[in-house]
Every structure is written in C-alpha cells, then in structure tokens.
Predict the 3D structure of the following.
Amino acid sequence: MGVLDDTLDFETGEDCVRCSSSWDVSDDPECASLRWESSYLDRIDGAASDIPHIPLAVLEVIESSMTILELDDDWDGQGAGRYVFPTWERMACFLKRLATEMFEQYGVSISSPKIFPAGEGSIDIHWKTDTFELLINIPPEPEDTIRYYGDNKFGNTPIENSCYITHPDRKLLAWMSLFL
C-alpha cells in the first residue's frame, strides 16, 4: 500500500495530500468499490446505497466515460495515443471523492459533469452551468498533479490551482460550494 503524507502546495500555500509514487488506486479503501470488472451500475442495483452521497447521475456519467478506453490510436487525427485504464480509474476515484467531500463538508450534492478525453492521455472533468464553469484535468501519470480552472459567469471569483489527485483540496471544495 502506498504511503500518504500531508504536504503543503508551495505555489498556493494550500494543504494537499500527496502520495508516494508507488500509490495505486487499488490501495485506496475509498476506491475499493471502483473495481470495474463488471458493470458498476449493475452491482449497485441502481440504489447507490453502498456509495454514500454520490448522485446516481454522477455514477452513470463515470460509467459512460469508459468509452474513452475504446478510442484507437490517433483518435484525434493528430497522433494521440490510446487511453489507459489506470488514468480513467484515477479520474473515477477523484470524482467519487469530490462528490463525497462536497456532501460531507458542505451538504451539497454535485451535479453531473461531462467527462472528455484530453491531450496527451489526460482526462477532463467539466462542469458548465448558468452560474459557473469548472475544468479539472486528470493527468496520465499518477505522480503528476491535477490542474483545475474555474470561473463564475459574473466575471469574478476565478480559481486556478493544482493539487495531488489523492484528495480534492480545500480551496476547490470551498469554491465549488459557492456555485452548486
């Protein structure tokens, strides 16, 4: 099992949780339910009772995003490579953690994002509503940080940061709670 240690993001001063390079999502008890050998929604029988605070629509978006793994080499016409399961699984675990922490810390159920293939093997999680837009990029390398950018539709309160994928940072959660 990988070792988690609390660190400080020196660019922002935010607390983040960082993992050792040997971390694997299969080591994370929060992601134990994300074993995708069979249909995820079939296993939860539509109730999501074993996955507290995660809206069923979010689980459906996660499951449907598995089509990213079916993309062939050069899917974008510019030489992009195939997507690999570990990147997709990190995205799914991160989105699950984000939904859980938003509910536990702010009492907010997140809306369903769009999930897209992005450049260089990364995956984008994207929300666009009447009040805000947020893009979170999940990199293909497990030791790389996620990057995110968000803006509200009123031109103030933008957010841009990076943090380790093992835990959504407090700044992101607080910002999202203002607009969900």
Summary: The beta strands are 4-8, 15-19, 114-117, 123-128, 132-138, 146-152, 159-163. Residues 4-179 form one domain.
